[in-house]
Queue: 4 jobs
Job 1
Amino acid sequence: LVRIQPYIGAGHPTDSLVITFVDITERNHVEVALKDSELRFRSIFHRSGVGMFTLDPQGRIESANAALERVFGLAEDALLDHGIDEYVSEGDQEQVRHAVARAFETRDHEVRVRAQLTTDGPASEVDFSLLSVSLDGDAAAYAIGIVLAPIPEGT
């Protein structure tokens, strides 16, 4: 990166310039690594045969993969911006909300919860695993959820 600015000494116009060179090689390497990491995560997330989703701190679904759509029997647009607790039985809603809150409170620790689904998918009961992710080392920005074991009806 090159910066060129006029040099004005003691308030008098001059025909001099200040040329500054800034090495941005490291910044470019970091940006490329970040893009690579994002692409890798998106690829794993969307191609996984395991139901996966991300939640905001209020427990609303921010993204869902195709496998989760199949487990829930709902399209992603029907899942987005809804609380994960909306898709479980009334008797399980409080424990799911509590599990989401715990996941955000206990960063870097997996929280598991089993719940009955109220959707039209093939599973009637699922085990969720929740893990919060912090982007800046402070408050968790989102949580990744995985359906560990969709349990088909009748088993």
Job 2
Amino acid sequence: SPTSFGSCPNLSNILFGQGSSYQFDGNAVYRGDRLVFVLPTVRSYSLPSTVSSIESDAFDIAVDLTEIVCAGNANYASYGGILFDKECSRIVAIPLVIKEVRIPNTITQLNGSVFSNSKEIELFYWEAPSIELVQNSNLVADKVVFVCSLRMEA
């Protein structure tokens, strides 16, 4: 569990014994094709193309993380530094210190609780003509300074 390392904000290296099913790449810990957690010192994280699943708390101790990048992964996509499922219909992870949140027009319903750990959000944009905030929408309202509909030009 990454929370076991939560009191180690400067954690930058992990060594596993020979034969361990865990691997460390300098930024995160993996178990096979599953992302277990990202280290607290990582600012920008690139999800490898080999990752097919992610622990629900994999980003919980990544307290300096400002963006998640995902290129060439068959299961996930990134947009504006946020990690989505491949169809961009569900938010998988939001960096804890991201300042601007951009939600693509593929999201029309948003659960406000996905922002519960994000402390730095200043601007919130969405591209959909309308968006329905459900469950814990007050968490979004508490963090949003400016809300607008944004159209992206290709």
Job 3
Amino acid sequence: VAKKKGLRRLVLGDAHRLPFSSNSVDAVLFVTSLEFMREPVKALAEAVRVSRELLVVAFLNRRSLLCTFRRIKAVFKESVYAGARFLTFKDVERMALEAGRVVRKQVVFTGRQTTLNLCVDGIVSRKLESLLGFSLRFGGFAVAKFRVGELHEPR
């Protein structure tokens, strides 16, 4: 699919050991993946190591109706979400800051957004989002942005 869309170079790798040099990419993006990793801080540390500027983490918000629905559903029916560790903005921020300390780089939280994703037809969610905005703490799909840079230690 990626090659059909024009991506010429694809690299298969492990998020815990990225096959890239330090500071070799502008940005790193995680999309609903940290929830399923045994060592999410280690994966974030690798992302911070290779990123020159930006880290973006999109995750399933533990405080949302969507995640509550998925947890309940996983009790009654086999689901990939049974083993998921749903996150909050505080969880993601804490892990990203810890990752920065591990690789001795500065990581600064710069913003957040959410979508409601209410487990129903998107029309309902879109109407409510147009009224309430995209920074709700209980939105189902959440995005946290971090600026990444070299650590400037005092002399």
Job 4
Amino acid sequence: RLLLGKAGVVAAFGFVLGTLLGVVGVAVGVPALGEYGDFSAGDTVRSVLAIGLYGGMISLVALGVGTFTRSSAATVSILFLVLLVASTLLGGLGEALGWDWLITISNYFPNVAGQTFITGADQPYSPVVGLLTLIGWAAAALLAGAAALKTRDA
């Protein structure tokens, strides 16, 4: 119950912060883009809310990893590797070696899933699959954290 309560607070905070950052990004970005910054209100609202949802999901991943490792340094390192390094490294290696299966794996990391979900792009998969992938990463991290919490701190 403790982890579930924390997850609710962390997800809500991540969503609100992500949404606010999305609003700030739009407010700064649209004027900077000039004539290329013409977006419909519906697309803008969808993107801002998607950024908020991404913030909430990644916050849950961070909570799960942090609960599992019980180390802030390890949590930051793992998140850095998972969110920024691993998909790029695996995708580049897959392209260099001609291993399509490695490219496919790299497409299911949370940063690629989030980008697909936020932008509404249909490559490498639909935004719905991107959201479901993010939910899967959050659930896996929280389950790992819950299992570690139950066995270690019971």
